[in-house]
Design a protein that fits this description.
It is built from 14 helices and 25 strands. It has about 450 residues and is α/β, with parallel strands linked by helices. The structure holds shikimate-3-phosphate.
Length: about 450
């Protein structure tokens, strides 16, 4: 667990106002580095998210002999000298994914294609998260994987090489599993297919063609990749749009604090990531899309948010994967909405960076909310205001920490959020950007 770091948050002194540009998308930043490193030629990327998770992915490739030049001090622009699909070198030591599940699960697919043994590890939280979902398919493709609980837990040692193409039916709607199998499929002897129970985020399928590798997506959802033998660095810079999962915190804060008006610039609105906006709108949120455009293969828009009364609703089934990372802060919206909010079919939340159902229920209930845990979700009955002058635990989970900082804006006093340092994994600038629109939040040590 990412321990330490206390945030002191809330209540908001007044309306939240202003326009913000949040950093680049975390999911796309991982993929852009991976594909660029494995391509022939030099790729330039801008809008990269310089959070710890993405820096772990970049470091893994540096450790395997890939040259990465940072083109700006803030690490948002970089140049990657690709080594080709077969150009990685065995690293001298263990590869460390830190807190990053996406890094370790997608890299399992990449390492399955390498003709050498590599060991990947991570922090205490990542070492508890289930890896069987990616280990099982790459084993079927021919890679050898060793790890605790028969390869379910990090550290994992992967020895790969030429792989067999497989048809993979995923048990969970997971973009990490799908992407792992597609990346391993680059090294397979034929067409690899993936089918998921519900569609998950599709950035891998959208980005691979930019690197000259077609991916077919059939109307019935079957995804197929026939390896073309190489990835090619795109001529044009790869632009990464702003992360909707980061924007969502400010959208919920602006919805909840009276008289607020906040615009979030250039946010990714890919339908597989836009579930949070649809949920917040269906709860009565006032969100408008302005200036819709396309960045690379991804749709973006400015999102103008005004405060307004929210009411509860039911979210389940196919709507869940489209908002999977945003439920911590959607729970905050629900805790302060009129009536009942019911989330079902979301058991995956229990195996994220923390058990997000338990962590949010404990933190919100400590603030006087009415959250009832369910095995696969929660039932939340809204209250008018939360209580302040309390301590809550973010459990080293970035999204719990930021969600509770939003909740505190509508509390009667300060909320002290402990073990919040993990914010740096996905959104190092969260506190200064939150302050820019008038949120009341600061680090206890004054940073
Ligand atoms: C991600 C997929 C999701 C999401 C994670 C990022 C990705 O995980 O929760 O934050 O970039 O592929 P699952 O694939 O486990 O649903």
């Amino acid at each position: 667990m990412n321990v330490g770091g206390t945030l002191i948050a809330g209540p908001a002194a007044g309306a939240l106002r202003g326009a913000l540009t949040v950093p680049g998308d975390k999911s796309m930043s991982h993929r852009a580095v991976m594909l660029a490193a494995l391509a022939d030629g030099v790729t330039e990327i801008d809008g990269f998210l310089p959070g710890q998770d993405n820096l772990s992915t970049a470091q893994m490739f540096i450790d395997m002999g890939v040259q990465i030049d940072w083109l700006s001090d803030d690490k948002r622009a970089l140049r990657i000298h690709g080594v080709g699909l077969h150009g990685l070198r065995q690293p001298a030591g263990m590869l460390d994914a830190g807190n990053a599940g996406t890094c370790v699960r997608l890299m399992t697919g990449v390492l399955a294609g390498q003709p050498f043994a590599t060991t990947m590890t991570g922090d205490a939280s990542l070492c508890k998260r289930p890896m069987r979902r990616v280990v099982e398919p790459v084993r079927r493709m021919g890679a050898q994987v060793a790890g605790r609980e028969d390869g379910n837990l990090l550290p994992l040692t992967i020895t790969g090489g030429k792989l067999k193409a497989i048809d993979h039916q995923s048990a969970v709607a997971s973009a990490q599993v799908k992407s792992c199998v597609l990346l391993a499929g680059l090294y397979a002897d034929g067409t690899t297919t993936v089918r998921e129970p519900k569609p998950s985020r599709d950035h891998t399928e959208r980005m691979l063609p930019l690197f000259g590798q077609p991916v077919a997506v059939a109307e019935d959802g079957l995804i197929s990749l026939t390896p073309s033998g190489r990835l090619r660095a795109p001529q044009a810079t790869v632009h990464i749009p702003a992360d909707p999962s980061s924007a969502c915190f400010f959208a919920v804060a602006a919805s909840l604090v009276a008289d607020s008006e906040v615009t979030l610039n250039g946010i990714g609105i890919n339908p597989r990531r836009d579930g949070w906006r649809r949920v917040l709108q269906a709860m009565g949120g006032d969100l408008a899309l302005v200036g819709e455009a396309t960045v690379g293969e991804e749709p973006v828009a400015d999102i103008a948010v005004r405060s307004g009364g929210l009411h509860g609703m039911r979210v389940d089934g196919g709507d869940v994967p489209d908002a999977i990372d945003e439920f911590p802060v959607l729970f905050v919206a629900a805790a302060l909405a009129d009536g009942e909010f019911l989330l079902e079919d979301a058991a995956e939340l229990r195996v994220k960076e923390s058990d997000r159902i338990a962590a949010m229920a404990a933190a919100l209930n400590a603030a006087g909310a009415q959250v009832e845990e369910r095995s696969d979700g929660a039932r939340i009955v809204g209250v008018q205001q939360l209580q302040g002058d309390i301590d809550v635990d973010a459990h080293g989970d970035h999204r719990i920490a930021m969600a509770m900082a939003v909740a505190a804006q509508r509390a009667s006093g300060e909320i002290r959020i402990h073990n919040a340092a993990a914010i740096a994994t996905s959104f190092p600038d969260f506190v200064p950007l939150a302050q820019q629109i008038g949120m009341n939040v600061r680090w206890a040590d004054g940073a």
